[in-house]
Write a structure and sequence with these properties.
The complex is a heterodimer of chains A (about 110) and B (about 120). Chain A is mainly beta and about 110 residues long. Chain A is built from no helices and 11 strands. In chain A, the strands form 2 sheets. In chain A, strands 2, 4, 5, 9, 10 and 11 form a 6-stranded mixed beta sheet that branches. In chain A, strands 1-3-8-7-6 form a 5-stranded antiparallel beta sheet, with no helix packed on it. In chain A, a hairpin with a 2-residue loop joins strand 6 (about 55) and strand 7. Chain B contains no helices and 11 strands. Chain B has strands spanning about 5, 10-15, 20-25, 30-40, 45-50, 55-60, 65-75, 75-80, 90-100, 105-110, 115-119. In chain B, the strands form 2 sheets. In chain B, strands 2, 4, 5, 6, 9, 10 and 11 form a 7-stranded mixed beta sheet that branches. The relative contact order of chain B is 0.33. Classes of the chains: A mainly beta (about 110), B mainly beta (about 120). The interface of A and B includes residues 42 and 102 of A.
Chain lengths: ~110, ~120
């Protein structure tokens, strides 16, 4: 099993819809979880951290399920500007190395 | 959030030459920085962990003699691609870990990346 796995997509979603994607991780000892957004030919930018109690920031909600070892990202009322690749990230267990998933591509359609 | 810069933002070089890329943490000290490589439409691949004052730790399959890393200070790490070839053309991104007051935990902040094209 890969350390961090994501569905590569693409997810083609109409504007205004709600979309969700998951990310599974293999190391049960992982402590920190993040969602990053990467636009084409740009560096990843932190979208939000994922806390045990969940985290909501406007239209974005992130949740952690430790029992099943996955994190999720929910985007409500999607905008055209949400089109990007979303990377999940999980901290490593040997050091502070962050392991990234391969990313999920999201296309919001007008 | 913390700011990480990279220089140059893009570079075109001839095959066989060496290229140095700088990564700086502008408003914080970073004992550890990370170097990634990303090919078009591919995932972010960790190449190595750069440790201030000691040798870098390379990921499996990354040639340490080809990708030289120097982390001489708490705010600067450099990656030198030696004897670059066209297959080394890629997007090279560094990152550094800093405590985010907003997130309440150490968070990775990325530099803007360096696009390398080897002719």
């Amino acid at each position: 099993r890969k350390e961090v796995e994501q569905d590569p997509g693409p997810f083609n979603v109409p504007e205004g819809a709600t979309v969700a994607f998951n990310c599974t991780y293999s190391n049960s000892a992982s402590q920190s979880f993040f969602w990053y957004r990467q636009d084409c030919r740009k560096e990843p930018k932190l979208l939000m951290s994922v806390y045990s109690s969940g985290n909501e920031d406007g239209r974005f909600t992130a949740q952690l399920n430790r029992a099943s070892q996955y994190i999720s990202l929910l985007i409500r009322d999607s905008k055209l500007s949400d089109s990007a690749t979303y990377l999940c990230a999980v901290n490593g267990y040997k050091d502070d190395k962050i392991i990234f998933g391969k990313g999920t591509r999201l296309h919001i359609l007008p | 959030g913390a700011v990480v810069s990279q220089h140059p933002s893009w570079v075109i070089c001839k095959s066989g030459t060496s290229v140095k890329i700088e990564c700086r943490s502008l408003d914080f000290q970073a004992t550890t920085m990370f170097w990634y490589r990303q090919f078009p439409k591919q995932s972010l691949m960790l190449m190595a962990t750069s440790n201030e004052g000691s040798k870098a730790t390379y990921e499996q399959g990354v040639e340490k003699d080809k990708f030289l890393i120097n982390h001489a200070s708490l705010t600067l790490s450099t990656l030198t691609v030696t004897s670059a070839h066209p297959e080394d053309s890629s997007f090279y991104i560094c990152s550094a870990s800093a405590l985010s007051l907003r997130e309440g935990t150490d968070t990775q902040y990325f530099g803007p990346g360096t696009r390398l094209t080897v002719l």
